[in-house]
Amino acid sequence: xxxxxxxxxxxxxxxxxxxxxxxxxxxxxxxxxxxxxxxxxxxxxxxxxxxxxxxxxxxxxxxxxxxxxxxxxxxxxxxxxxxxxxxxxxxxxxxxxxxxxxxxxxxxxxxxxxxxxxxxxxxxxxxxxxxxxxxxxxxxxxxxxxxxxxxxxxxxxxxxxxxxxxxxxxxxxxxxxxxxxxxxxxxxxxxxxxxxxxxxxxxxxxxxxxxxxxxxxxxxxxxxxxxxxxxxxxxxxxxxxxxxxxxxxxxxxxxxxxxxxxxxxxxxxxxxxxxxxxxxxxxxxxxxxxxxxxxxxxxxxxxxxxxxxxxxxxxxxxxxxxxxxxxxxxxxxxxxxxxxxxxxxxxxxxxxxxxxxxxxxxxxxxxxxxxxxxxxxxxxxxxxxxxxxxxxxxxxxxxxxxxxxxxxxxxxxxxxxxxxxxxxxxxxxxxxxxxxxxxxxxxxxxx
Length: 447
Fold this sequence. Notes:
Layout: H1 3-16, E1 42-46, H2 52-66, E2 70-74, H3 80-88, E3 96-99, H4 102-108, H5 119-122, E4 130-133, E5 136-141, E6 145-152, H6 153-160, H7 176-188, H8 190-193, E7 197-199, H9 210-228, H10 241-253, H11 267-275, E8 279-285, H12 289-292, E9 302-305, E10 317-322, E11 326-329, H13 335-350, H14 352-360, H15 379-389, E12 393-395, H16 405-420, H17 425-443
Parallel strand pairs: 1-2, 7-8, 10-12
Antiparallel strand pairs: 3-11, 4-5, 5-11, 6-8, 6-9, 6-10
């Protein structure tokens, strides 16, 4: 999780794929034009339901071009791990699946084919996007993503023009105290601005709670890792949990709905509230673009700023950039299906049809061939690029080291109880710190 490599990977994928790739093209059966020579079939268990139809169309295009059958099955939101376990138990298991990083790999490394020397690895812009299992390459990141506080520039500019506004320009928001002052003032003057709240609803059902139990929780973990020079740990200390509480309070106390209603709010609710101009701020990432474009908010009025939590020096903090989407090839599949799957991956990242399709899905792909021609039309990606160019330090995606989904669910349940007034913050701290230790030991019994 080296921030310089993350920054390099994002810029390379967005601008020109200029960084040198790695690998020697020794294991793939694809020819120079990407035309497969392997027999067999491909079965991809897709993680991203928002791109289900596009993956199916891409699979059909590949089959029509090569004759190799490609089946795409998409797991329900929040249900990937459970469905992967079910599908892997079948005689016709997925040949291509994904893990979310080191923790996911720990559960599935026995199924991961060594991708060293394959075409898809040779196309990576940096070896930081190769997921290692010892000396082997168990997976490759196929998309880099960025998240932060998406904001409505028009509404924020309108706020700045009000008498006694806390800021005169959005660029003045570069720390938590300023963000807090602005958000609370917007909430108090929401009728003047014609909004329902400073922030969209922090829905805590399965379509939305990951934004807070995982993505927001990443930031205090990131800062603790930074202070302790860690890349993972068997025991989190919770040094920045007061900061986590402060930003969570800010979200739920200055939103479009009362905290008691959060259990009934969904991810769709939050996206709609922002898209319809009912809220100024919306915590989400570059992938949310398709959910908010084409409604009341003009594309040119959508920006993204870092999530500040009140840590000294955060004026130089950037957006959260990384990947939790790693392709893995099932080494227990038939040999011809493994080769067919490697050919399919090579075609996806080198052919014009493949690159265009991945771009249309909104992906910033860390492969050499994704030049400006394949840059998605997404102002959130432009905001991410600009954030790196001004020299801000990207926040690493440390949540890929969170010990388990059970840990996340425990934190999420405690957050909801606290928000609703039926639980204390102490329960969040216990779930965060003690839960981490317990779940790490459960996932690493030999540790």
